[in-house]
Amino acid sequence: MQKIRVRQKNQITIPLLIAKEADIKPDDVLEITYMNGVVTLVPAGRKGNKRSVMEYAGAARGTWGKTTEEIEEELKKDRDSWER
Q1: Main-chain dihedrals φ then ψ at residue 42, nearest 5 degrees
Q2: In this structure, are 57 and 83 located in the same domain?
Q3: CA distance 75 to 49
């Protein structure tokens, strides 16, 4: 992990290797957040890459069966296999 120093006026310099890897160039705008003790910088134009949790709705459809009866039977098998 690299370390950087916060200068007067709270300025920082992003190390060259990290800037290249993150494709951060001069005059790019970054969004900064602070949560649970962690400071995060994200290039503003890349915010759209986040996906809504709703995009995953139905991802496991059919995994345990197609009908209610099939699903209930699979759940019963799984629950019966648990050690109690």
Answers
A1: -135, 130
A2: yes
A3: 35
